[in-house]
Amino acid sequence: GGFVFFSHQIGSFMGVWLGGFLYDKTGSYDIVWYIAIALGVMAALVNLPVKETSIVRNKPAPALQNA
Fold first, then answer.
1. DSSP H helical segments within the chain, as ranges?
2. Where would you tag: which of 11, 25, 41, 67 has the fewest CB atoms within 10 A of its CB?
């Protein structure tokens, strides 16, 4: 939880800042798009081996009936 949230916030900040910085340096967003595509593909590849399993839950107890 905490690390994922923290890394997302750092990535969001760096993405916006780096996008503006690279646009100022190159006058184009092309390199920003290429970096975003590369990072997206890398993120997909890193998540491929993740195996999701179902959570086994107990059946809820029946409600008590009023007499």
1. 2-26, 30-47
2. 67
